[in-house]
Amino acid sequence: MKKVLLVDDEILIRETIRDTIQWEKEGFIYCGDASDGEVALPMIEQYQPDILITDIKMPFMDGLELSSFVRKNSPDIKIVILSGHGDFEYARTALRLGVEEYCTKPISSADLLQTLRQVSDKIDAARLEKLEIEQLKQEEKRQAGFTQSKLLNDLCSGFITTSEAVHLSSKLNLNLLSRYYVVVTADFRKLASSDSVPDDSSEDMNHAEHLLNLKLDGNNHLVFKRSKTECVWILKYETQEQIKQALEKVQQVQNQSMEHLSYSISVGIGSVQDRMQGIHVSFLEAMEDMHWRRLSRQNRHAMLESRNGSFEQSVFLDRAKFVEFLKIGSPAHAETFIHSFASILQHTDWQSSFIGYYILNDLTLEVFRSARDSYPNIANFDMTLQELQKAIELIRTLDESRAYLIRLAEQYWQWRSEASDKHGDMLIKLKKYIHEHYDKDYFSLQDAADHVNLSSGHLSKVFSQENGQTFIEYLTQTRIRKAMELLQTTQAKSYEIAFLVGYNDAHYFSNLFKRVTGMTTREFRKSGQLNKDLLTSEREEHKGFVSYS
């Protein structure tokens, strides 16, 4: 309801207007009335009316003076002038002051009510416009802060194709193009221990994140926050040497000692890629690397606490040396290598201390991290880790620790053997499934992952590594390829073809088709020619399990 305040020096007019209109029934609240502008001012301040009805000629402060004051101090209040004067100058002055309506006396209650309704509609329209403008400002503000982050997140997650990424980045004036790419991830997390963690450690973590940003060249990296504790950097350089130098700076943070810190820094580094679509692969590798480094840091922190805050780096086994042996060594040399390698454990107290557990667990986590990087399709990965960690808890002698290391090596070699020719059959099965379901608009990476009994994350990484393109790029290529065939072999409309190849938004399909092929659907149909490069690559990829008839 709109609040109405009346100002007129004639009491009869005030009483007549007050008593002849059923205010609440008509959608208004009658706040009261005043005999002149001076009396009205405190009432306006108190009631904050939406509509002010005022006479012009009044003692002390007339209607024009009152209107001028209200327009200046309460511009949202709509003013309706009532006047018995027909002089044009009054009307012109009133309109210049911005009054909403100028009515001459006498005025019937019906005419006044009609005027109030018109003014009420204007108030509603103004409020709606103000709300829409405010919402638009908020959306623009939100978009300004998050659009870049969403684009980078989607690019890392493999949700958009290279052409889409380039198209969207141009709208944001964001330069994504480069010769080489590598993704770095970092997790800044408060240590779980207790009283030693100060309340302001989050400030320390923000400072550490800032320092890592400073170590990287601001012109050659794009950064976004993936979560409250995780940051992602996409490094882009023109030479391999520049990439190497940047990663050396990252390594300085990664190798930072945990002593005297209230938080841990776990940094993950992906592989260097020479195509934008490889950013997704590098991101998945960086996330895996970061995950295992975080587990390793937690293990080392637990060991630090068990040693009352101090330990020698030499108590740890050489993880890099052991992993290198697993990659190039053979079972025939395992016993000799491990006998020498584990000699550092000969003085370990297995009976009354957990130090031995932490040392072997630290090495085990590094072996698992390396295995996950090399063989992402490992089954029962977490379960195997738990079994080995339980086995470590039972070790009580040096010989038992050596036997455990042989078992760990054999597990790694078993994964290596199983993975040697596993991806080929799986990818053939997966691509056949894609060609059978690409026309479903709801078809997704998760559907494909369920079909081959893998997690979506692992499937995405394997697919990108083995196929040279992301899942979404392969699916898009399949759909556009089919759309090209339909444009050349049928008379179907563009929107019909969009639906037939899995897109329920014809406008999106048309834009995507042009970005991929360089032509609109109309231009392509007139050209009478399929994209030979795409046709050839498609047939080579799917020879043996899909028909093009």
UniProtKB/TrEMBL annotation:
Q: Which stretches make up the HTH araC/xylS-type domain?
A: 428-527
Q: Which residues form a coiled coil?
A: 116-143
- Keywords, alphabetical: Coiled coil, Cytoplasm, DNA-binding, Phosphoprotein, Transcription, Transcription regulation, Two-component regulatory system
Q: Which organism is it from?
A: Paenibacillus anseongense
Response regulatory domain: from which residue to which, for each copy? 3-120
Q: Where in the cell is it found?
A: Cytoplasm
PROSITE patterns tied to this protein = HTH_ARAC_FAMILY_2, RESPONSE_REGULATORY
Mind telling me which Gene3D superfamilies this protein's record contains? Answer: 3.40.50.2300, Homeodomain-like
Q: What is this protein called?
A: Response regulator
4-aspartylphosphate-modified residues are where? D55
